[in-house]
Write a structure and sequence with these properties.
This protein is α+β, with helices and mostly antiparallel strands and 187 residues long. It has a single domain, classed as Nucleotidyltransferase, domain 5 (2-Layer Sandwich), CATH 3.30.420. It has helices at residues 69-72, 75-85, 99-102, 104-120, 142-152, 161-171, and strands at residues 2-4, 37-45, 57-63, 90-95, 125-130. The strands form 2 sheets. A 3-stranded antiparallel sheet has the order 1-2-3, covered by helices on one side. Helix 5 crosses helix 6 (161-171). The chain is globular.
Length: 187
């Protein structure tokens, strides 16, 4: 998901009679060191069969730069580690066809991970579910993204990248984890 610092989300709002409320696309200053948009991975964690045992929540990890395969591969193990602490044994990961989701590097990592889980008899298996092209409504996390974008918008100014990430994490009531990025070895 991309969170923009400058482009407002599409939304509707009530205004006082005779007044017009407008969100204007912000223009970053030329010397602004922050990126125009922040990318993040999100996982909707829920257990529809037993909602009391695991209340619905969203886990986020922001990305330094843009999402690529080498940044994507640390995300599933982070999710699996957290799920294993909750006693879960499988992760159904619903992904679109973004290049960093379907890359050979990511698929090979997931195959290797699942093989290791099977051989060791412990851990969290990852089951991938790829969505058809142009079908975001099939992913249960999409409405959360829409509401999040509408909730964190700043009508009267431009947020810094840190403020934007903090607002997103506050909206989803999750910790602001360290950002995923390329290591020196991978770069």
């Amino acid at each position: 998901m991309w969170w923009s610092r400058v482009t407002p989300p599409s939304l509707h709002a009530w205004a006082e009679a005779g007044e017009v409320l407008r969100l204007i696309e912000q223009t970053p200053a030329k010397d602004d060191p922050d990126r125009k948009a922040l990318a993040c991975y999100g996982l909707l964690v829920s257990c529809p069969a037993a909602p009391a045992s695991l209340p619905e929540q969203i886990w986020l990890r922001f990305v330094d730069g843009r999402p690529v395969s080498s940044i994507t591969t640390p995300y599933p193990p982070w999710c699996c580690e957290k799920l294993e602490k909750l006693g879960k044994t499988a992760l159904l990961m619903v992904w679109d066809n973004a290049s960093w989701h379907i890359s050979n590097e990511v698929r090979a990592w997931i195959r290797s991970h699942n093989r290791a889980v099977r051989e060791q008899g412990q851990g969290v298996r990852i089951l991938l579910c790829y969505l058809p092209s142009k079908s975001p409504w099939l992913n249960r996390i999409e409405p959360h993204w829409v509401h999040g974008k509408r909730n964190i918008v700043e009508p009267a100014g431009r947020l810094t990248a840190q403020e934007l990430a903090d607002r997103v994490c506050a909206h989803f009531s999750c910790d602001h984890e360290t950002h995923l990025g390329l290591t020196e070895k991978a770069a």
